[in-house]
């Protein structure tokens, strides 16, 4: 029987193992996880009297199928919940301002609601309004920030696009790949002289359904997805899960198979961060390792707070707020978690999840827990009018957790895959560093790489 090693017990590695284990001609599978638990960045624990509050991602996109389909397959489809509100805010000029409708990833497709939002100055609105009159932007060097600055000016980028897209990646829109992080914007920019008019036409042709949820989550938090995947793996059998098992550099065994430490395999899937994959493949594919080493990471700190409802100085009538980079002190975003999720509500209590850190500014990781909490509270006192002290606090650190999709990202990833095919056939990559960082994208990659491995094994 063929043997496959899957390195990494996050969502990508778990899905890879699950897809392999489901196959009629399934191989023997060994899943190696360097930490003492499965789930990677998905972590759900009790907090402030609630049985399950996420310390990592708390939802997945509903408009793409991969996570929703997996939840249905695991028996969670009928249980999925959605945020109770779609309203969100941006902190600007000393006030929280509603993010208006008519935006696509922060890029305007109209003016009326944006003008009323107060997010742009009169000068910024006048600059953005010239966009339909500008000639076609010929080249952006695959740079998201460069395109938006050229088309709409600095304020649209810094107060809308960067907080929204940059927040997803804990990144800097001025250093992000347009094609890899905002392909729908890239596609419209490539075929339309005006980005605004192109997006407006797209929305008219395919108007969003206001009745359809944007996000889903299992009712017991994202950790429920990991729990169900693990249970299904146990039921399928044939998967040897080894926790606290660091991945060792790969080598060729005498019979031509792959050796990962004491384990030999016919194929290896590296569902680990790019820097860990680089260390693993360096002895067998130095060129792939060098390319993997060019993918940088950002680290963040998540501070979860429980506070008395009376201690909040404004009505929490949205899912949260974002803080544009020019106005950031510590907090980059805050989820009003007990408003966002109806099942997290406790009478008289508010739960907030504040994020600190982004690419180029990780000072929160250098603070001790008390310092991180003080920094978060200082900002939230200004943003939300918080008074007093929290009744419960949880600090979760995620160092080197957000891969950065720099300009030219897709070409680098293609080059890595090509180098492995030439120099280390039978070694595969999947995960957040390559073709999307969201949970649905990681699930899709796990399924795709499992299909590729099975096809290769069948050709042997």
Which features would summarize this protein structure in a list?
about 450 residues, protoporphyrinogen ix oxidase, domain 3, 7-stranded mixed β-sheet, alpha/beta, 21 strands, Polyamine Oxidase, Chain A, domain 2, FAD/NAD(P)-binding domain, 3 domains
Q: What does it look like?
A:
With 460 residues, the protein is α/β, with parallel strands linked by helices. It folds into three domains: 3-40 and 223-295 and 406-459, FAD/NAD(P)-binding domain; 99-205, protoporphyrinogen ix oxidase, domain 3 (Orthogonal Bundle), CATH 1.10.3110.10; 297-403, Alpha-Beta Complex (Polyamine Oxidase, Chain A, domain 2), CATH 3.90.660. It contains 17 helices and 21 strands. Strands 7-6-17-18-19-16-20 form a seven-stranded mixed beta sheet. A five-stranded parallel beta sheet has the order 11-2-1-15-21. A hairpin with an 8-residue loop joins strand 17 and strand 18. Helix 1 packs parallel to helix 17 (439-459) and helix 5 (144-152) packs antiparallel against helix 6 (154-169). The protein is globular, with a radius of gyration of 23 Å.
Brief overview:
The chain is an alpha/beta fold and 460 residues long. It has helices at 11-22, 65-73, 112-117, 122-129, 144-152, 154-169, 178-181, 183-191, 195-205, 223-236, 274-281, 286-292, 337-340, 363-366, 369-384, 409-423, 439-459, and strands at 3-7, 28-32, 44-47, 50-54, 60-61, 89-92, 95-98, 103-104, 107-108, 215-216, 239-242, 250-252, 258-260, 263-265, 267-270, 297-308, 320-322, 331-335, 349-356, 392-403, 427-429.
Query: What is the percent of helical residues?
Result: 25-40%
For the largest beta sheet, what order do the strands appear in spatially?
7-6-17-18-19-16-20
Beta-sheet strand percentage?
15-25%
Overall morphology:
globular
If helices are DSSP runs of H or I spanning 4 or more residues, what is the number of helices? 17
Terminal CA distance reads: 12 Å
